[in-house]
Amino acid sequence: MQRSLFIDSFLRPELIARYTPDILAAMLVTVEIAALVVASGLALGLMLALVRSFRLRLIDILIVAYVDVFRAVPPLVLVLLVFFGLPNVGINLPSRAVLWLVLSLVLGAVAEEIFWAGILSVRKGQWEAARSTGLGFAQTLAYVVLPQAIRLTVPPLTNRTIAITKNTALGSVIGVPEILNVATTAESFIGNATPLTMGALAYVLLFIPVVILGRWLETRFAWRRA
Amino acid sequence: MAPAPILDVRALWKSFGSHDVLRGIDLSVKPQELVFIIGPSGSGKSTFLRCLNRLEEPTSGSILVDGVDMMAKSTDLNAMRRRIGMVFQSFNLYPHMSSLGNVTLALRKVLRMDASSADAVGLAALTRVGLADKARAYPAELSGGQQQRVAIARAIALEPKIMLFDEPTSALDPELRGSVLAVMRDLRACGMTMVVVSHEMRFARDAADRVVFVEEGAIVEQGPPAQIFGADAGARTRAFVSAIER
Q: How many angstroms away from the CA of A140 is the closest CA of chain B?
């Protein structure tokens, strides 16, 4: 049977059948790490933004320093730095943990900026109205300011979250058995690009639901404004 | 024996850096009095009002609300703020809550009322301002006048001892102001002590017990509306009043 060169190079059926289990297993690893990164990164970012709302100068400086570093340095550099550097100070983490740690810190930095911008964008009058009815600082944050701030953060956050979680592919350079790693390993083993195509499709399959979820969140959180 | 003043302000100074916005204001407000504060923009009227519940921090001076020293470290500021109702020029309603939610937030979270009691009190307040039928509406669905009335309901639901109004109608189209002024008149008739910063001179003439003319951070003149708006007023007062009423 004559097959087109394209199909044979990128979508050879026998290889698809052979590597599907591996790719599926890798997808599980990717999803697992991505979910953990999202949870811990967003929590970290929110917590830091809340701390910043207390306006303690020294703490602010520390937070800004952390954020600037983790936004400036390419995640790949950070992954390699942590992976090869930590054992030198006696900390031996498995590669998955290193990936999760670095990506969480990067997402935390980005998320902090987004949450902080959201908090700042809530007009001062909202604080004043709440405080003038006797609500305390924390109560005002919890019931008046954050609900408004968070609705503004959903669009940029979903964008940045998707970007950061695609970075799980960086795990391939430190041996995490996620999608890119498995795909490239198979490709170099058999000399055919089909596993890479499968990897790309795997990413598409994984992230389409995330994008849809993000869009649903955005529409759900928009309340009618005057 | 004269009743103790609800509000007793002595030598209130407020500076922003080197700029003195308030220069030694003395003001005393009796229970049930409606005091109207007028003056040119930048005269410090709003700043004065906002010092009373310490939304602005006074630089020096004393403020006694219902006998309690607002400047003392031991004073529970949140508790005192419940006794001082404030209405803002830009309404400042919480956009993510319904009218009833706006009115009952402090009742539920500060006074820790349960939901049904809070709703009952909140609905009563909304009824007083004529908006019980808008309890479920969100601020974005209300006109400016309705939003301001909800804001008033939010303040009176806590049963404050004194209400502060910071230019309550200045952000409203003329045809919407009447509804808000009517609510304010009604509050006054029910005996609420009110301090109002506003340019609504006709309201001042009709409803105020005392009008205070503030210019450049100091009280120039104060007295009953007939005096301030009449021919016997001081020169600067007459100049300002005639400029406003043109």
A: 10
